[in-house]
Specification:
AKR, single chain, NAD(P)_OxRdtase_dom_sf, 8-stranded parallel beta sheet, alpha/beta, oxidoreductase, NADP, 10 helices, two-stranded antiparallel ribbon, 315 residues, NADP_OxRdtase_dom
Length: 315
């Protein structure tokens, strides 16, 4: 199966590869993310999705530096995403948060900086991600995401990021943000796969020129907050049957399901074979196949209701 980068154009004018490598890992082993990024670059990936929360941006930066020095890739060919965590929503924290990520990544700028969640959390330290009160409740802050966004817009002016966007925003929150946004909301990164109903949100974003990026396109069965009622997406009988009929793996089918709709897809893996497999989907994407994927989606309705939105935290 041939592999190549497919691209879409953001409302900010930036070109972004439709398939990227997700780097969210919460049991980071020394060097494993660095090695995964190096393998991905060798395979052909040019889009890497990270976040301050993941605490592995230094590994990403080391891999990028090595591959750039080797002449394998140029900085201008790469699309690097980082995210502003919820404890840095106060205006006086925003720029410093990005500068910390840039230092770890060993970059002068990122291509995209996302607000990781609309919910602000009280700052109690750079490495305190979800501080709790005496009742073990998250210490929510009263800063509104519109104030945080206005500060993020300054990061574009300062050339610290080329585009800005959000993650885990619903329609009502996006509508409020659109009223005050001077910079385009380039991306809304959300969970998306055939077993979660995001059609209304996706349609709204398309209408407003906001590109969708899909995290957890394979369902992320190992995530900590997974419900017992969540389907095992990769092993679902229909997914396996359809993948077999198309001569591809279930993972490839689920990646192609998103990018066939013009949705950026960022599957995560540290396995070299799976990193390559997830990238080799271009042959599955065409206008002719779009109706097929819609039929596939509709056929899943017989397996029960879908969730309509994912949890906001730790993506």
């Amino acid at each position: 199966m041939a592999s190549k980068n497919l691209y879409c154009l953001l409302s900010s004018g930036r070109k972004v590869p439709l398939v990227g490598l997700g780097t969210a890992r919460f049991k980071n082993k020394p060097g494993e993310v660095r090695d995964a990024v190096k393998v991905a670059i060798d395979v052909g990936y040019r889009h890497f999705d990270g976040a301050y929360l993941y605490q592995n941006e230094r590994q990403i930066g080391e891999a990028l530096e090595e591959k750039i020095k080797d002449g394998m890739v140029k900085r201008e060919d790469l699309f690097i995403t980082s995210k502003l965590w919820s404890t840095f929503h106060r205006p006086d924290k925003v720029e410093n948060a990005l500068r910390q990520s840039l230092e770890e990544l060993q970059l002068d700028f990122v291509d995209l900086y996302l607000m990781h969640s609309p919910m602000a959390v009280q700052y109690t330290g750079d490495k305190e991600f979800l501080p709790l009160d005496k009742s073990d409740q998250i210490l929510v802050d009263d800063i509104h995401y519109t104030e945080t966004w206005q500060e993020m817009e300054k990061l574009v002016t300062k050339d610290l990021t080329k585009s800005i966007g959000v993650s885990n925003f619903k329609i009502a929150q996006l509508s409020e943000l659109l009223k005050i946004a001077k910079e385009p909301i380039a991306i809304n990164q959300i969970e998306n796969h055939p077993f979660i109903d995001q059609r209304e949100l996706i349609d709204f974003c398309k209408l407003k020129g906001i590109t969708i990026a899909a995290y957890s396109p394979l369902g992320s069965p190992s995530r900590r907050w997974r419900s017992d009622t969540d389907p095992d997406v990769l092993r679902h009988l229909l997914v396996k049957e359809v993948a077999d009929s198309k001569g591809c793996s279930p993972a490839q089918l689920l990646v192609a399901y998103n990018i066939c709709q013009g949705i950026i897809c960022i599957p995560k893996s540290i396995s070299p074979s799976r990193i390559q497999e997830n990238f080799m989907v271009s042959i599955l994407v065409s206008d002719q196949l779009l109706q097929f994927y819609q039929t596939f989606y509709n056929k899943l309705t017989e397996f029960g209701p879908r969730r309509t939105f994912s949890l906001f935290v730790i993506v």
